[in-house]
Amino acid sequence: AQGEQQQLSEECQELLNTLPKERGWRTQHLYLFQGFWCQPKEIQAIMSVQRNFIAQDSDVVLATIPKSGTTWLKAIAFTIMNRKNIPVQNDNHPLLTSNPHELVPFLEYKLYADNCIPDFSTIPCPRLLATHMPFSALPQSVKESGCRVVYLARNPFDTFVSIWHFMEKLRPESFGCLSFEEAFDMYCSGVVGFGPYWDHLLGYWNESLQRTQKVLFLKYEEMKEDTNSQLKKLAEFLGLPFSIEEEKGGVVDEISRLCSFQTLKDMEVNKNGKGAIFADSENKDLFRKGVVGDWINHMTPSMVDRLRNIMDKKLSGSNLSF
Ligand code: A3P
Predict the structure, then answer these.
(1) Three-class SS of residue 60?
(2) 82 lines ligand 1 (CB under 6 A)
(3) Which atom in ligand 1 lies closest to the alpha carbon of residue 158?
(4) Does the C-beta of 79 come closer than 6 Å to ligand 1?
(5) What is the C-alpha end-to-end distance of the chain, expressed in Å?
(6) Which of 19, 117, 268, 283 fits as disulfide partner to 31, beta carbons 3.0 to 4.6 Å?
(7) What ipTM describes this predicted complex?
(8) Is ligand 1 within 6 A of the CB of residue 298?
(9) How many angstroms separate the alpha carbon of residue 13 from the centre of ligand 1?
């Protein structure tokens, strides 16, 4: 743990010494910070976001737990919000040359990472930002301003399978193997980045029920099933509904196609580019299969039962199901 604390502020190092910790997925440890599990550098960045970020009424914040389709949501929201200035079929559309994470920065990985205070003058308004933080951890100004929050949820089975594969690519060899079974035990105990998974879901779900104009709750599975209708819902929520002319002109279809798994996966920047989120990661690892239900190829029936039981208990009474 010494190594992973070295580049942190003294304040953060001291805090870490007081927090409960467990074995990490790609760092030595995950720490229980403000009720969720987090890596050391993320904790430092989140503290800075909480202290320094002031939301504007026009801001849009995209929120997810890792591997729920963040990359997809970023591509879609960016394209919808910029379609007046950058027509979808423009030969210079930014998605043709940039990974979605380069277009929509994470508060905690890009903007406030490494003890930086970002220069927001370079980010055009309305600002489109992203986070993996649970709702409870968002800065007060996000909760109290007119800022809109879009949450994308994905079923826990696919989210687990996706994160396990992703971490396989990112975990340093020196940390040894984290078997699928060990990782599953950790996941079921809630020990996963920004988890417990169910708390993350419920935080945004409950808020979306209370502040329908400000928090939109989307599901990956519904986006897959009928992308166009979810795109329309999102555009309306953002105050940028598609006009009849746009719909007739096929703009919704074009956005679906541009942001689809296959289109993005095949872009040069996503095949051979690096560092869209972490300096040491390859962009291609963000595009694995992009389907619903791949868990069936990985999880045993008893694993499925165990996680289903946990989810049933945790979500009972919430009206939320997967
Ligand atoms: P799989 O590992 O199941 O394939 P995140 O973007 O939050 O890191 O989530 C990554 C998951 O979303 C991966 O799931 C990835 O393949 C999938 N994904 C990435 N781009 C997508 C897209 N345009 N449409 C649908 N799924 C996508």
Answers:
(1) strand
(2) no
(3) 3
(4) no
(5) 37
(6) 19
(7) 1.00
(8) no
(9) 33
| C-beta separation of 44 from 136 below 8 A | no
Of residues 155, 132, 144, 160, the one with CA closest to residue 61: 132
In angstroms, the CA 85 to CA 256 distance is 18
Residue 1 has pLDDT above 90, yes or no: no
Ligand 1, closest atom to CA 264? 23
pLDDT band at 2 (very low <50, low <70, confident <90, very high): low
Two structure tokens written together for 203? 């935080």
In 10 A of CB 128, how many CB atoms? 22
Q: What is the DSSP string of 281-311?
A: -BGGGG-S---S-GGGGT--HHHHHHHHHHH
Task: Indicate if 298 belongs to the active site.
Answer: no
Global pTM reads 0.97
Report the largest interatomic distance among the alpha carbons of the chain, rounded to a whole angstrom: 59
The DSSP secondary structure of 84-106, one letter per residue, reads TTS-TT-TT-GGGTS-HHHHS-B
Per-residue model confidence (pLDDT) at position 114: 86
Pocket lining: 165 vs ligand 1, CB cutoff 6 Å: yes
Range of lowest pLDDT (5-14, 106-115, 295-304): 5-14
- State in Å: Cα 207 to ligand 1 middle: 25
Task: Report the chain's mean pLDDT, rounded to a whole number.
Answer: 96
User: Cis (ω within 30 of 0) for the bond into 40?
Assistant: no
